[in-house]
Design a protein that fits this description.
38% helix, alpha+beta, Phosphatase 2c, domain 1, 2 domains, 308 residues, single chain, five-stranded antiparallel beta sheet
Length: 308
């Protein structure tokens, strides 16, 4: 793909270390492209990563994930987005493991990742861990990704309710992450409804986005303390930079101790037609109608004279 200086979607991104006095081990990137010299289809790729590990090792892992996955996307032709993401995530994880083995200070480092790739009007996603991708359509916020956590597995097995899971002591136990000894499988389910099967969720890849749709990528520093309904209220009908700032501010106001990262992308909406246009449209239509009547009347008169 060919890099471009501007995206065909509106974009805003912010990251904050949170209120816990910790270094910010979150990382993110947003890149815009067109597919090729012969194909002007626009493309935007966004990724967020939440590092795991002490002594800033998580920061290193998150940075590696963002760089390597973004690079793999940039170098592809955009023809197999899901396959590219799966391969890129696997290779990024292997690189993190190798780096961890070479440096004792980085031993055990890892990271989550959540990716959203818009090609033209179609959305493709992939994730590992508990960073999320959401879709805001109108007033409805849908979580498209599935958390890879102990509590999510317990919910799916009927052991916990969603209400019980929110305050469970294992709420932050991640079951899948980049840099794990066992290579993680990228989750490519794009879930539009809870009752969907995994097969159906995967078939949703390439979802056609509508004008005004907003894609939200975020780390758990946001979702730990801000509800889905609150996120929807803060994003809907707001300029994206303002919405991102409000999301971060709300999380911080609740003493969110984890790092907080937000990336927002909005599909363009058709420009409203100026009221002056409609004024002159109706004036023009009236003139044409009047002219039509005059021509019809003239033709009738001429035809009447000829008949005499």
């Amino acid at each position: 793909m060919i890099r471009t200086s501007s995206a065909h979607l509106s974009v805003a991104a912010l990251s904050h270390p949170g209120m816990g006095g910790r270094a910010n081990e979150d990382r993110f990137a947003v890149s815009s492209f067109r597919l090729s010299e012969d194909n002007d289809t626009p493309s935007v790729f966004a990724i967020v990563s939440d590092g795991i590990g002490g002594h800033l090792a998580g920061e290193v892992a998150a940075e590696m994930a963002v760089e390597k996955i973004s690079s793999a996307v940039a170098q592809c032709d955009g023809q197999d987005p899901v396959g590219v993401l799966k391969q890129a995530i696997q290779e990024a994880s292997e690189a993190i493991v190798a780096q961890s083995r070479d440096d004792e200070q980085l031993l055990g480092m890892g990271t989550t990742c959540a990716c959203a790739w818009v090609i033209g009007k179609q959305l493709y996603i992939a994730s590992v861990g508990d960073s999320r991708v959401y879709l805001l359509r109108g007033k409805h916020l849908l979580q498209l990704t599935t958390d890879h956590t102990w509590v999510q597995e317990a919910i799916e097995r009927g052991i916990l309710t969603r209400e019980d899971a929110a305050n469970h002591p294992n709420v932050h136990v991640i079951r899948r992450y980049l840099g794990s000894p066992k290579p993680p499988q990228a989750d490519t389910r794009l879930r539009l409804a809870r009752e969907e099967s995994d097969t159906q969720a995967r078939s949703n890849q390439g979802l056609y986005l509508l004008p005004g749709d907003v894609i939200l990528l975020c780390t758990d520093g946001l979702t730990d303390v801000v509800s889905d309904s609150e996120m929807a209220d803060l994003i809907e009908n707001r300029e994206l930079n303002d919405a991102a700032q409000r999301l971060i501010q709300l999380a911080c106001s609740r003493e969110g101790k984890d790092n907080i990262t937000v990336v927002l992308m909005r599909m363009p909406t058709p420009a409203p037609v100026p009221s002056r246009f409609w004024k002159w449209f109706w004036v023009g239509l009236g003139v044409l109608f009047s002219l039509g009547l005059l021509i019809a009347l003239a033709a009738w008169l001429i035809f009447g004279v000829l008949l005499k």
